UniProtKB/TrEMBL annotation:
Protein name in the entry: GAF domain-containing protein
Family label: Belongs to the CdaR family.
Organism encoding this protein: Streptomyces cynarae
Residue ranges occupied by any GAF domain in the UniProt entry: 92-243
InterPro entries for the chain: CdaR-like_regulators (IPR051448), CdaR_GGDEF (IPR041522), GAF (IPR003018), GAF-like_dom_sf (IPR029016), PucR_C-HTH_dom (IPR025736), PucR_C-HTH_sf (IPR042070)
Keyword list, A-Z: Membrane, Transmembrane, Transmembrane helix
Coiled coil (residue ranges): none
Parts of the chain that traverse the membrane: 186-207
Length: 639
């Protein structure tokens, strides 16, 4: 202050307040207010003037503090208003949180501001957003309830402040929190709770990297910020929940629309299936109708053409079963498997569409039963025609051909006669009769689809089926055994005759072929090959010997049993050597070439055979018996 100002303070009529009013007008710092007093003392002014200056200084400083406080409150109120306005326009939670910490750091003029939120699942608070932070470890901190300053604020719902965090023992210091705070270099920390009602949802912080005392006004200001922040966070969360609810509502509407479409499709398929039944449609018409409704490929297949495991599962459960990318619904009637409806390449079949497929399978079974009722008369006619071919010697060939033509059968084509019989054990006579009826039904259905004939006979079924080009009687027998066994769920053994070309010209042709098929059937059962199929060509001249009740196993055991048992115990090849020896005309030299062994090895094996079978095993009578036993032993093994 100048000497003129001091002199003016000394002049009569001039108040002691003048220099301080000038300082107030200039907005001088608080230190400048000491200058007038110091100069007055240096000039040696009277004590009363110095006391007057002291009094004026105190009043001026008080006025200055009031003016500073008002300016600060105006700035704070303005900042709060601007913050509230800014937060009201934000809809994204991340943007809201970032705006809060930026404004808090700016208003309190701190090095850093940050915010933590409560994690209900973990029971702690975690660092959500920071402003001014430089330490990665600090930015990833989690504070348990009661840990550190922030954990204490979250636990007590009260603000806490410290001028020097590491020297303050009010807080529960942990290695993790202290390490993060030390990395950030923080010293003075102020934390206030973010409250929604009585619930603490987080903590808002302002901190400096040097010692600092936060004034009560600063604590209140940050508390006001926290109130705005909590309201903004709550609003953002409500908006998020509203959006989620709207999204869920939109999805629910989509589901309702989808369900409505599904119900319409189900109604559509019901109407279509009802129309098909009324106008006498077939199973393939049902498949085509369901294909249109399900927007996929639906096929009806025979039981033996569908995958066995899923088909059986569908039959047992009464529901459609998924198989890879397909769905399979069994078509059954009274426990009998009639076929399957298969949806191709449609893995995402929903429950309503599954029920549509199952309903279609039921309609298909009804149509099949209705068709069966219609064709049973035709089957009886087919059976009667086959009975006439087997029994009537004085039949007219022309009449037989005409009857066959009405059944779409051609008696001039080459046929095979097959004798089929069940091999499963029945619990009682009723079950056995039911099983025979199922076998006859399945055989009749097969005969109708193959343009053949079928009839129940001798406790089993006889079939007359055409032989296609390139096919053999053996192949037809085995295929028929598999088909009938699958249809009735029991092993079915089938014996076939050699091909028959003149069914009507020779009165005994069909009967002789049937007798031959029966002999093959008996041979298969005697050899333990139940459930298999074979023709006379598979047995050669042995087919004439295997009828009746001969004990094949006992004959083989009696003739070459010692050799077979020796091979089984020692892992040797005596049976194979015997086969090769007889096949090579009983020549050891040719036998060793056939077996690719040394002639001495052949001699040693034959010597062992002699010790097992006796010295006369190569005599003509014994050799014939041994060769027959070898042949039977080989045929006893299923191909």
């Amino acid at each position: 202050m100048s000497r003129d100002h001091v002199q003016s303070a000394q002049r009569p009529g001039t108040g002691a307040e003048a220099p301080f009013l000038e300082l107030l007008a200039r907005g001088a710092s608080a230190d400048a207010y000491e200058q007038p007093v110091l100069l007055a003392r240096a000039e040696g002014l009277p004590p009363e003037r110095i006391r007057a200056l002291e009094q004026a200084k105190r009043l001026a400083l008080h006025v200055r503090a009031e003016m500073e406080g008002r300016r600060r409150r105006e700035a704070e109120l303005s900042a709060l208003f601007e913050t509230a306005h800014d937060l009201a326009g934000l809809r994204d939670l991340d943007a809201v949180l970032q705006a809060i910490v930026q404004r808090a750091r700016s208003l309190l003029s701190t090095d850093i501001a940050y915010l933590t939120l409560h994690d209900e699942a973990a029971g702690d608070t975690y660092m959500r957003v920071t402003e001014g932070s430089v330490a990665a470890r600090f930015q990833q901190l989690r504070l348990g309830m009661g840990e550190g300053l922030g954990g204490l604020v979250a636990q007590t719902a009260r603000p806490y402040v410290t001028p020097d965090y590491f020297e303050d023992d009010r807080f529960q210091h942990t290695w993790t929190i202290d390490t993060g705070v030390r990395d950030e270099g923080l010293v003075a920390i102020l934390g206030v709770p973010l409250m929604i009602g009585a619930q603490v949802i987080g903590v808002l912080f302002a901190a400096d990297r040097r010692a600092r005392v936060f004034e009560r006004e600063e604590i209140a200001l940050l508390g006001s910020f926290a109130a705005l922040a909590a309201a903004a966070i709550d609003t953002a969360n409500l908006l998020t929940e509203t959006r989620s609810a709207l999204d869920r509502l939109a999805r629910a509407n989509e589901i309702i629309r989808d369900r409505s479409a599904v119900i319409e499709r189900a109604s559509d398929v019901h109407d279509r299936l009802a129309e098909l039944v009324l106008r006498g449609g077939g199973v393939h018409d049902v498949a085509a109708a369901v294909s249109q409704v399900l927007d996929g490929t639906v096929e009806f297949t025979e039981a033996d053409a569908a995958p066995a495991a899923p088909l059986e599962a569908s039959r047992a459960e009464g529901h459609a079963v998924r198989h890879g990318d397909d769905w399979i619904a069994a078509v059954t009637a009274g426990g009998e498997l009639l076929g399957a409806l298969v949806v191709r390449g449609h893995p995402g079949l929903d429950p309503v569409d599954q029920r549509t497929l199952e309903r279609a399978a039921m309609v298909t079974s009804l149509l099949l039963l209705a068709r069966r009722s219609a064709v049973e008369a035709e089957q009886r006619v087919r059976g009667e025609l086959l009975d006439d071919l087997l029994d009537a010697r004085d039949r007219d060939p022309r009449v037989l051909r005409e009857r066959a033509a009405r059944l779409h059968a051609d008696l001039d084509a080459t046929h095979v006669v097959l004798a089929a019989r069940l091999d499963g054990a029945a619990a009682d006579a009723d079950q056995e009769a039911a099983a025979r009826r199922r076998l006859w039904s399945a055989a009749s259905h097969l005969a109708a689809t193959r343009h053949g004939l079928a009839a129940a006979r001798d406790g089993g079924t006889v079939l007359l089926l055409p032989l296609e080009a390139g096919d053999t009687a053996t192949d037809l027998a085995r295929r028929t055994a598999r088909h009938l066994g699958t249809a009735v769920h029991e092993p079915v053994t089938v014996g076939a005759s050699a091909p028959v070309e003149d069914l009507t010209g020779d009165p005994d042709a069909v009967a002789a072929a049937y007798a031959e098929g029966q002999r093959c059937l008996d041979a298969l059962r005697l050899l333990g090959r139940a459930g298999d199929g074979a023709a006379a060509e598979d047995f050669g001249f042995l087919g004439l010997l295997l009828a009746g009740d001969r004990d094949i196993a006992a004959y083989v055991e009696r003739t070459i049993g010692e050799v077979v048992a020796y091979d089984e115990r020692r892992g040797t090849d005596l049976v194979r050597t015997l086969d090769a020896y007889f096949a090579c005309g009983m020549s050891p030299a040719r036998t060793k070439d056939e077996l690719h062994v040394h002639v001495n090895t052949v001699a040693q094996r034959l010597e062992r055979v002699g010790r097992l079978l006796g010295d006369d095993w190569q005599s003509p009578a014994r050799a014939l018996e041994i060769q027959l036993a070898l042949r039977l032993h080989r045929l006893s093994s299923r191909p």
